[in-house]
């Protein structure tokens, strides 16, 4: 059961009409390390993870949907007033041919999202290590997107999303420490 | 942790036969959470308003990314 708040987690402002940036941003929408993959990965793994860290996966998985919504808003704003000609010039001609301006779950190269991107191994350590890796990969993707984007308002929102990847990664690392059950114990070697 | 920077640098090998002008210095990010493993209790906190903008409640985890290819960007933003 979820409760929906009809607002974005962080404001999304777009200062320039730039459909090509939308083409790159879609990587975080339907790409292998995108927000959809993250949300579905965590909200699925949580059924077979020890009780102590179920809540963490629920909370982070839920937040990923809030991030997905921010990315969707960016893509929508960047493309909504683009002409078919502008879409073509931005490299979005093949997208336009299939989807018009509609969003779809695919990566920056148009490869559709697949469950093969995510894993649920049933082994808590294996799953949490995958989650840490996923957060670091998403963080890196945000870095490269900021490198390529000249839109200061978009970059501000992307910087926020990258910061959340950092926090999530740390929380997953803490979950591993909790499951190791050595936290706060005196260490003898 | 004096002189700490979340961006590390290295100098890759430059071949005399490289087709493009060489980038003599390359960099990569090492954000603060890598050094924490388990966040200690009682770290200083942002105000709620600041935290909502920063994306974290703790200055120790705050590490905004600015492109190393766009030197002007960080100054423009602050």
TrEMBL record, chain A:
Mn(2+) binds at residues 35, 64, 67, 135, 168. Signal peptide: none annotated. SUPFAM superfamilies: Ferritin-like (SSF47240). One of its GO terms (molecular function) is metal ion binding. Gene3D superfamilies: 1.20.1260.10. Belongs to the manganese catalase family. Its cofactor is Ca(2+); Mn(2+). It comes from Anaerobacillus arseniciselenatis. Keywords: Calcium, Capsid protein, Manganese, Metal-binding, Virion. Binds 1 Ca(2+) ion per subunit. Binds 2 manganese ions per subunit. Ca(2+) binds at residue 59. This is Spore coat protein CotJC.
Automatic annotation (TrEMBL), chain B:
Pfam families: CotJA (PF11007). InterPro entries: Spore_coat_CotJA. Keywords: Capsid protein, Virion. This is Spore coat protein CotJA.
């Amino acid at each position: 059961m979820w409760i929906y708040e009809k607002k974005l987690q962080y404001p999304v402002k777009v200062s320039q009409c730039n459909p090509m940036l939308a083409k790159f941003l879609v990587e975080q929408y339907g790409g292998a390390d995108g927000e959809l993959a993250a949300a579905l990965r965590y909200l699925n793994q949580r059924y077979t993870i020890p009780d102590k860290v179920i809540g963490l996966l629920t909370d982070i998985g839920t937040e990923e949907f809030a991030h997905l919504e921010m990315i969707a808003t960016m893509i929508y704003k960047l493309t909504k007033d683009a002409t078919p000609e502008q879409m073509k010039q931005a490299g979005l001609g093949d997208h336009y041919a299939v989807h018009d301006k509609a969003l779809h779950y695919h990566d920056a190269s148009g490869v559709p999202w697949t469950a093969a991107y995510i894993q649920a191994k049933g082994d808590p350590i294996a799953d949490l290590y995958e989650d840490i890796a996923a957060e670091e990969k998403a963080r890196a993707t945000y870095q490269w997107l900021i490198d390529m984007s000249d839109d200061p308002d978009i970059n501000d929102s992307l910087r926020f999303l990258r910061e959340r990847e950092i926090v999530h990664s740390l929380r997953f690392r803490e979950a591993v420490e909790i499951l190791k059950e050595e936290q706060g114990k005196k260490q003898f070697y | 942790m004096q002189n700490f920077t979340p961006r590390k640098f290295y100098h890759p090998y430059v071949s005399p036969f490289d087709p493009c002008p060489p980038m003599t210095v390359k960099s990569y990010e090492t954000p603060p959470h890598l050094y924490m493993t388990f966040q200690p209790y009682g770290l200083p906190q942002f105000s709620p308003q600041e935290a909502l903008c920063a994306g974290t409640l703790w200055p120790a985890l705050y590490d905004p990314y600015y492109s190393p290819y766009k030197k002007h960007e960080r100054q423009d933003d602050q």
